[in-house]
Amino acid sequence: MNSVFFFRSTEDNSIYSTIRKQIHGLDIGVLINNVGMSYEFPERFDQVENNEIFLNNMIRCNVDSVANLTQIILPGRINEV
Q1: Domain containing residue 45
Q2: Could you read off the pLDDT of 27-73 as tens digits, one per residue?
Q3: Cβ–Cβ under 8 Å, residues 40 and 49
Q4: Is residue 6 included in any domain, yes or no?
């Protein structure tokens, strides 16, 4: 299974439904967060070009993805603890 997902530009949560379907039945023991973004170069936040769009994309990528993927994977693991 090879899939590419763009977490920062998602306006809806449909990618998480797709991920849920693709991993259904897999025994996942470790979730590694390899998703993240930051500024291209050091800059004051209010000086970043299109900072409102950038902030939204950064939150979707750095925060929403972790919460959503944990929510998808954790229920299958919770009874094993």
Answers
A1: 14-80
A2: 888 888 888 888 888 888 788 888 888 888 888 889 988 998 998 88
A3: no
A4: no
What is the pLDDT at residue 81?
45
Whether residue 29 lies inside any domain: the answer is: yes
Residue 36 counted as domain residue: yes
Give residues with Cβ within 8 angstroms of 31, minimum separation 6.
69, 70, 73
Query: What is the tally of helices (H) and strands (E) in the chain?
Result: 3, 0
Q: ∠ at Cα 57 (41, 28), nearest 5°?
A: 105
Q: Please tell me the pTM assigned to this model.
A: 0.73
Give the count of domains, the chain: 1
Flag whether 2 is in a domain.
Answer: no
DSSP string, 23-61: HTT--------------SS---GGGSTTHHHHHHHHHII
